[in-house]
Design goal:
The structure is a homodimer.
Chain A lengths: L10 E5 L4 H12 L3 E8 L6 H12 L4 E6 L22 H5 L10 H16 L3 E3 L15 H14 L1 H6 L4 E3 L7 H10 L24 H13 L10
Helix pairs in contact in A: 1-7, 7-8
Chain lengths: 236, 236
Amino acid sequence: MTTGPEHPARPAVVLLSGGMDSAVAAAIARDAGFSVHALSFRYGQRHAIELAAAARVARALALAQHLIVDVDLAAFGGSALTDAIAVPQDRSADEIGHGVPPTYVPARNTVFLSLALAWSEVLGARDIFIGANAIDYSGYPDCRPEYLAAFERLAQLATVAGAERGERFVIHAPLLRMSKREIVECGTAHGVDFALTRTCYAPDPSGAACGRCDACLLRLRGFAEAGLADPVAYRR
Amino acid sequence: MTTGPEHPARPAVVLLSGGMDSAVAAAIARDAGFSVHALSFRYGQRHAIELAAAARVARALALAQHLIVDVDLAAFGGSALTDAIAVPQDRSADEIGHGVPPTYVPARNTVFLSLALAWSEVLGARDIFIGANAIDYSGYPDCRPEYLAAFERLAQLATVAGAERGERFVIHAPLLRMSKREIVECGTAHGVDFALTRTCYAPDPSGAACGRCDACLLRLRGFAEAGLADPVAYRR
């Protein structure tokens, strides 16, 4: 894709959490020639340290823009990520892969994609990238291909661009069928500096990862399987 | 529907803006026997006076709960309701009924319904009420029946309740095909005190309605056609 002045890059909105998956999704979008407008949320998460990581990732990837928007999901409660519910630790790969964990935030991807859609309509973007992954997060209903396809259909009907002008929104989930190992390898190939990312659901005040929550365990397994060392600090 | 202790009322989430349409939707939900959890948003609207109106309506209808949640749609810009774009005045009924007005907030109903869905999942509610109206707001793509049906399908796939347990979410839009006159009459029949509601897109600091924006003009026409006086104060 040409991105010279005669062919300015098309804008895309990329959901950027500060974790490794969305960093890889952002790098893929950038390397596909999009002008990347990264979107993060201050949603009442206990691990707000991820917002600083998102800003670092956006700078390192030289993204066009990074916006942090407030949306108070904690007002509803019901999740270990926003509420006084314990984050599970030391679960086996089988436990992590099955059932809905308490770290599920009700309808989170629907809320985040809706906000990405709102910004896309203002920017004139038709492409939204999300780092959703159906393999490692099979317990999250809103990481499944049929869910993302339904959101694409909704976007068509929800917007002036789609409903009035017949333009199509595309929800890109380039990591959807990748293993964590493949995500590590893909990110490395796209120049992602994983040292900047933060994955842990329950980091300590210094920012060190716990190494025991589902997110840490999946991340560590991915690096191990890729034969690489995870560059972030762990408490143990 | 029985609402005694042996048959506690089923919860429903109702989007409550402080305007007349959502007040009528809330009264319909309550009178259908639901325990109504009303949801309003501080989204950066210029007419934030509507939040005080929503609180008054929730109290007057003796709703089970009223929650105001922050979601910063103004961060995206692009609408006369959140931005420094002029609210149109003195448009004819034909102008109001056609095309997308500058007061359209991109993807607003998608964002609001997503947040209602998140709260529903936490509450164990399967019913969401929205005061969307397809007649007077034909310019808003996200007030159309096909849009609401698409959101219902998405809700099924987006949630643990829908995806794992096969439960159905229902988006109720009881005002969808009503004229403003019918909404006035229906609200009156359900005991809505319209004096508590606020509709104007551009009220003055005292809270008086402008009487000239699309929302005021539609409201005034509804009362006139119903042969009733609108009890709220107008600047002119």
